[in-house]
Amino acid sequence: MIQTIRKAWGIPELRKKILFTLLILVIYRIGSAIPVPYVNTDALSAYLTGMGTTILGLYDVMSGGAFAQATVFALGIQPYINSSIIIQLLTVAIPALERLQREGGEEGKKKLQSITRYATVGIAVLQALGYYFIMKSQLQILTDTGIWAALVIIVSFVAGSSFLMWLGEQCNEFGVGNGISMILMAGIISRVPSMVSTMYRNITAGTVHWAWAAVAVVGVLLLIVLIVFVNDAERRIPVQYAKRQVGRKMYGGQASTLPMKVNMSGVLPIIFAQSIATIPATIGAFLPTRPAEGSFGYALLNAIDTKSFLYLIVYFVLIIGFSYFYASIQFNPVEISNNLKRNGGFIPGFRPGKPTSDFIARVLNKITLFGAIYLGVVAIVPLLADKFSPVSIGIGGTSVIIVVGVALETVQALENQMLMRQYKGFLE
């Protein structure tokens, strides 16, 4: 692998791409350390520390801690991700967008990308307004509550998020891998040094035994191995193409496969499920007064807390539900069956048309169930570890899946670049 990296670095074009990607990440980390004016970051961090189990904690994790410091990149790349998901879901519901995606070609892709950009700015404005009013509702966080201060804070957040979107697109064009994913991964990885230092201080202070720390590290490594194993796992359905004569030439007759990824929905079901499952805890955190101990309200707040068993059960069920929902959007058995029929393809043992689509649907349901359970296990295990062990891992299954997935994607991109130049790649 070291030799391969050396050869990759020796290729001028690939070296420029790597350097450009690193430059994008450096700019992102610099922006994540520049706070916006009129904000007391110490008071804000202290306030958000108690909100770590709410949806605000999720935003802080995804932004690499920039959310808690109210930096210019506090909103991170989340508005763009949310916008992309919304537009993708709308293409299923709105026929005009579906036609634009399916039949528009390159021009259609540009129009959808333009719509996504505008939606990103709109979502960023809404999130910036919400974040400002959260800070305004708490004493001593804002040093100035005037109109000018509000305008500066909101515009800074929106401009930072829009700039990150532009950086991601530039990385896609001139760098290595997916720019948006790289920025998201960089934010998550930036929290690792602080987590390691915290664990080291706890071990040296005697509050945590080194054996528990070793178990936590081994657990994270095993989780990574599981994610790597399932990430590329797929079910291949054999497909046979009939021979057909066009003029004096014979076409078809070859065998192929229809690949179906075990985890085709990626990390999206976990993000959706976590956002919805944390809503009750978020509402409870904003209550002006906490109910008295022993009351119904107190018991209800404990039941909906993100460390309760009820939350874990609801979280797991939502992950499975969203996995099926997203799989049905991504993979349409009827459309696949029709495409095979039009191209003269068929699955051995099944007639073209409805029998083929029914078979593909059955396989899809089985694969989706396995992938959903896998996502649920990856999401729940770190929470259970934090609940029953004295060591706080400090990193969720969502973060691990994102980091590992982006790393594999980047390695694959470098692999493709190397194969184009007939060098041995990372995966050989």
Q: What is the alpha-carbon Rg in Å? A: 24 Å
- Briefly, what CATH class of the largest domain? Mainly Alpha
Under the CATH scheme, the architecture of the largest domain is: Orthogonal Bundle
State the fourth-level CATH superfamily of the largest domain. SecY subunit domain
Count of discrete alpha- or pi-helical segments spanning 4 or more residues: 19
Quick one: overall form? globular
Give helix and strand order, one letter per element, not per position: HHHHHHHHHHHHEEEEHHHHHEHH
**Mean pLDDT across every amino acid position:** 80
Termini separation:
10 Å
Report the strand count.
Answer: 5
* Alpha-beta content class: mainly alpha
How much strand content do the residues show? 5-15%
Return the CATH topology of the largest domain: Preprotein translocase SecY subunit
Strand order of the largest sheet: 4-1-5
Helix percentage range: 55-70%
Largest β sheet strand count, sense and barrel closure: 3 strands, antiparallel
- Tally the structural domains: 2
Runs in which pLDDT lies below 50 for 5 or more consecutive residues are none
Quick synopsis:
This protein is mainly α and 428 residues long. The protein has helices at residues 2-10, 12-31, 41-49, 55-62, 66-69, 78-93, 95-103, 105-137, 147-174, 179-189, 192-205, 210-231, 268-277, 279-285, 296-303, 309-330, 333-342, 354-388, 397-420; strands at 234-241, 244-246, 249-251, 255-261, 345-346.
